[in-house]
Amino acid sequence: MNTDITSIREIRYSRSSFKIILVTYCFLAAGLAAMLTMEGPARVLAMILLPMLIFFIAFAVYEYFRRDFVTPVITIGPQGIQDIRIAVGFIPWEHMDGVIFATMDPRTAKAATIFVNMESKSSLSEGLVAKIWKRSKRPRPVLIRRGQFDTQFREIAAAIDLYYRAYKTRAGNTENGSPQRMPA
After folding, report:
1. What is the C-alpha to C-alpha distance for residues 33 and 51, in angstroms, rounded to an integer?
2. Dihedral sign from CA coordinates of 156, 158, 163, 165
3. 76 Cβ partners below 8 Å, 6+ apart?
4. Which listed site, 41, 129, 136, 157, has its alpha carbon 20 to 30 Å from 150?
5. Domain spans in the chain, listed from the N-terminal domain onward
6. 118-125, long-range: CB within 8 Å, 24+ apart, which pairs?
7. What is the dihedral of CA 17, 20, 25, 27, to 10 degrees?
8. What is the reported pTM?
9. What percent of the chain is modeled with pLDDT above 70?
């Protein structure tokens, strides 16, 4: 694992999962095309569904290439962590009250739960504020879960743990002169 805490780590979706989805759609299109050779209601159904499926495949390919392979899904860096599946905007390390991993060990975790402090409401993006403080006076925990990434989640969890320990301790030292307790 890379232990450089000054670099920015960008995690994107895996291309292999996209290929599996694309092959599945193509088999569906081939099945509908085979139905065109039949007579009766099956042919009419295929004539209706095949153009819609082809349009859907084209739209899926466009979305995957435009959004998923160009834009990183999770970004971890010195300024904080961002997961665009939740909302756009970074959660700074100094605004976190803690990070808990599902198995309490970053190497075997399946999810990371981030607890945000009350003071962070004024400095987070509107999307994050809407998601974290949804109809509540207290912030809700943010769950970063695994997905179809090009990086294994244990490496993502280890990076979150590494950055949190490094930058949360620095924030604690600069605010009141003593390091804060870290639940991670």
Report:
1. 10
2. positive
3. 8, 9, 11, 156, 159, 160, 163
4. 129
5. 10-68, 74-176
6. 119/95, 120/91, 120/92, 120/95, 123/92, 123/95, 124/89, 124/91, 124/95, 125/87, 125/88, 125/89, 125/90
7. 180
8. 0.67
9. 86
